[in-house]
Design brief:
This is KANL3/Tex30 alpha/beta hydrolase-like domain-containing protein. The chain is α/β, with parallel strands linked by helices and about 210 residues long. It has helices at about 40-45, 60-65, 70-85, 105-110, 115, 140-145, 160-170, 190-200; strands spanning about 1-5, 10-15, 25-30, 50-60, 95-100, 120-125, 150-155, 175. It has a single domain (about 1-200), classed as Rossmann fold (3-Layer(aba) Sandwich), CATH 3.40.50.1820. It has eight helices and eight strands. The longest helix has 16 residues, at about 70-85. It starts with a strand and ends in a 7-residue tail after the last helix.
């Protein structure tokens, strides 16, 4: 099921995959350089088989056909009402709620974790710093997350290795995956890492 959700910066588009007997909901968004067809986001549809509703969200700038992502505050302004809409009304889905995304989408979920009332954050390929510039750290975005946080990071990610992320964001559970910032074309190790975290942290989630 695909539905549009109004936000202050234009409509977002949500692709809903409902589990037969839901135990919670995972909502993820894309990065600044791609869409919801990224291999890792597609592969994680397997979570539906585990009983998780799975929602992929296209930010308004992608829906509008733009090539460049807007400023972080604009991304956040769209994300918060999307999560609120999925909580309520005819789209109402089951908690606990895990929000997240890949790259820029992961940053959005971290920054808005308190505002959305999420029960956990899933960060795929968290861009800790621009390539070659570790001094420009974005660790504060992960450090402000007050709920369970999983970061799945490519072993050769130029935006920050798993070791770098673990050292800079000690409140996160960090799992390495094959590949670089885009992982691999068959990211089953990403799916395995996410499944393991969801099972292991289940008692820590609200809902």
């Amino acid at each position: 099921m695909t539905t549009q959700i109004a936000t202050p910066v234009g409509p977002a588009r949500a692709h809903l995959h409902r589990a037969a007997r839901p135990r919670g909901t995972v909502v993820l968004s894309h990065g600044a350089g791609g869409g919801v067809d990224a291999p890792d986001l597609v592969a994680l549809k397997a979570l539906v088989d585990d009983g998780w509703n799975y929602v992929l969200v296209e930010q308004p700038w992608r829906v509008a056909g733009k090539k460049v992502a807007p400023a972080p505050k604009t991304l956040d302004a769209a994300w918060i009402p999307v999560i609120a809409a999925l909580h309520d009304g005819r789209r109402r889905l089951t908690g606990p709620w895990i929000t997240g995304g890949r790259s820029a989408g992961a940053r959005v979920a971290c920054r808005t974790a308190a505002a959305t009332g999420t029960d956990g954050v899933l960060a795929l390929a968290f861009p800790l710093h621009p390539p070659g510039h570790p001094e420009k750290s974005r660790a504060h975005e992960g450090l402000q997350v007050g709920v369970p946080l999983l970061v799945v990071q490519g072993e050769r990610d130029p935006f920050g290795t798993p070791h770098e992320v673990g050292a800079a964001v000690p409140n996160a559970t960090v799992r390495p995956a094959r590949g670089d910032h885009g992982f691999t074309k068959d990211p089953q190790d990403v799916v395995t890492a996410v499944r393991g975290w969801l099972e292991g942290a289940a008692g820590s989630f609200g809902g």
